[in-house]
Amino acid sequence: MSKILISGGTGLVGKKLQSLLKSNGHEVNILTRNPKKSNEFSWNIKESFIDENAFTNVTHIIHLAGAGIADKRWTEKRKQEIIDSRVLSANLIFQYVKKLKLKLHGLISASGIGYYGAHTSDIIFKENDAPYNDFISKVCIEWENAAKQFEALNIPVTILRTGVVLSKKGGALAKINTPLFLSALGSGSQYFPWIHIDDLCNIYTDSIDNPKLSGIYNCVTNEHQSNISFTKILAKTTGKFLFPLNVPSFVLKTILGELSIILLEGSRISANKIESIYNFKFPNLKEALEDLLK
Ligand SMILES: NC(=O)c1ccc[n+]([C@@H]2O[C@H](COP(=O)([O-])OP(=O)(O)OC[C@H]3O[C@@H](n4cnc5c(N)ncnc54)[C@H](OP(=O)(O)O)[C@@H]3O)[C@@H](O)[C@H]2O)c1
Q1: Where are the domains of the chain?
Q2: What distance in angstroms lies between residue 25's CA and the mean position of ligand 1's atoms?
Q3: What is the pLDDT of residues 123-147, one digit of tens each?
Q4: 45, 66, 181, 213: which could join 86 in a potential S-S bond, CB 3.0 to 4.6 Å?
Q5: Could you give the CA distance from residue 16 to residue 64 in angstroms, rounded to a whole number?
Q6: How are beta strands 49-50 and 40-44 bridged, if at all?
Q7: 0.90 exceeded by pTM
Q8: Atom of ligand 1 nearest to the CA of 69
Q9: How far is the CA of 245 from the centre of ligand 1 (A)?
């Protein structure tokens, strides 16, 4: 049995992961800005503070904390918050782990497929491909570098570059699955790499249970859906009307500003590396959506 501290464990992934880890016999502590339960501990990134009780007997840390990337328009202030909530938070955890001389068995950090940039190309990106040069790739590079510093303490680091997480509760699917009808965005030809939340949480737990699973992994399925093919399968699964006209790019750009790029652009991401060690429960979108929505 391990004891795992999850930063940002109150969110979409963290809640599901917490119950999975507990059902696998592990103990879980949570780092949150608003502790409410007995296993939740407070931290304040701006004040460089963490309640040290959070670290008692901890064997692994999972770093999920981060201001929602698609939650608000990307003003300069919001962009900084997106970076700081991932990078300064990881730096702060690092300082405490060093100060408390914790002998961790692993640090597992979320990252995003945004590492390869928000752009549409013919490339199927693999883990050792170079990052892009836009805002979202900058976030992922800094986030991953902050995680990698734990290697200097001889702590194995696992980085999970995650695609859009499909879940019953909230997240992207709740936003896309509109009440009346569905429509493709922009050209609709941009790719939309996705993963079922059960598979993502299984990969996180495997990272705890299998020490060999350190390094960087793309966490998406190998079924490459474009925005339009995804939307068609979603409409068919839910019996909703597929609106025949795409939402023009300029409309999304006007409403969302620069953030619209993550909806309007996307390349394929290879799942070959993760598939070599993990058997996906939901490799197909149709079955994943049926599980989540029916
Ligand atoms: N969901 C996806 O589709 C997806 C895809 C790729 C990558 N990821 C990454 O995976 C991680 C977990 O995703 P998720 O969907 O579970 O995210 P989420 O639901 O937004 O939860 C993230 C947690 O981070 C904490 N947080 C938010 N803003 C913060 C801030 N300014 N400073 C410190 N903590 C803050 C919150 O915890 P408290 O309010 O309790 O402090 C929140 O519960 C995130 O880093 C996300 O970027 C998610």
Answers
A1: 3-293
A2: 24
A3: 999 999 999 999 999 999 999 999 9
A4: 66
A5: 12
A6: antiparallel
A7: yes
A8: 47
A9: 33
